[in-house]
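TOPIC: backbone geometry
CONTENTS: sequence, structure tokens:
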Amino acid sequence: QVQLVESGGGLVQTGGSLRLSCAASGSIRSIAVMGWYRQAPGKQRELVAAITSGDRTNYADSVNGRFTISRDNANAKITVYLQMNSLKPEDTAVYYCKVDGGTIVPFHYWGQGTQVTVSS
């Protein structure tokens, strides 16, 4: 089992910055990919950014160049960050952390979600 704790959402003006954090604990050795997804009201959940255990990254076109995903291993946890710069009102959504992994039996876990609101 993997436990995920998210933090860092909030309200920011257009052009501002926020950093989201997601700390994973438990069976973290078999985590292969950590990612951030978002879901705006009335829209489907979409991938924002992901990072592999080998630090390969992938970004949605809409955030490429503005958002940066990174990860840190320390104190028996893996923390994945999402640095969001030049925020736009269309970035407003609930942001969810997700981990995928498993060497024999695949698994995935979702965080509880954190609200990001960008005011115009």
User: Anything to note?
Assistant: Residues 93 and 103 are 32 Å apart (CA to CA). The chain is about 0% helix and 60% strand. The mean pLDDT is 96. The radius of gyration is 14 Å.
